[in-house]
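Board notes, transcribed. Complex of a protein with zinc ion.
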Amino acid sequence: MADFEVVPLRAFSDNYIWTIRDAGHAAVVDPGDAAPVIDYLAREKLTLVAILNTHHHADHVGGNAALLARTRVPVFGPHDDRIPEVTERLADGQRFMLPHFNIEMETLEIPGHTRSHIAFHGGGMLFCGDTLFAAGCGRLFEGTPRQMHDSLTRLARLPDDTRVYCGHEYTLANIKFARAAEPGNGRLLELEQQAQALRAQDQPTLPSTIAQEKATNPFLRVTEPAIIDSASARAAKKLFDPVSVLAEIRDWKNNF
Ligand SMILES: [Zn+2]
């Protein structure tokens, strides 16, 4: 595998612009703001080679135009006119080589947070925008609980050691909710202590892994009896199917 590292650039209050870089080049995922990217490229003397967009929200694409005004690079993103800068529109299953890095990326359509949300999977990495967070999932702005469930189920089938690069630093708040939804899950306590230690040093809690998410994320654990029980208790009726459980805990989290 090519020699590269993945660096988080901070934007706004809690966004991460994930930057794949080597000694001279960089590709950025979801540059909601151009300024931190421009600063980083200048400081590290890197040439931008590509932009990847997971979904149309401004805090993920707002920096596209200013970056492109400086360097013309391909922009990989979903079929959605709300991101006019996209030059390579990708459908589910479509593969492409990340310019310069020779990492083959596969496109996964994962609607739920928005209707055209995609993820990029390749090189042992998953860039999943606002669909899957550490111990949580995105709000359902344009999609249904069933779509989110199907999308998360697909992501959960990726290899356990896949590194999961999410769009926001939401981990501690998500763990707090996850502990309420599944009080008996000891892994959550462990994870909370790790995450608290990292945040105390102002370090990111990401990337996560698929294995970690399957063990701790209530939205991936909707078939676990403990999650079904707490969702049913909140709904005040017995919930039987995973989609209803997900809908209930998503609503619970919205009001948590
Ligand atoms: Zn979003």
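The pocket of zinc ion is lined by residues 55, 57, 60, 113, 130 (CB under 6 Å). The longest strand covers residues 5-11.
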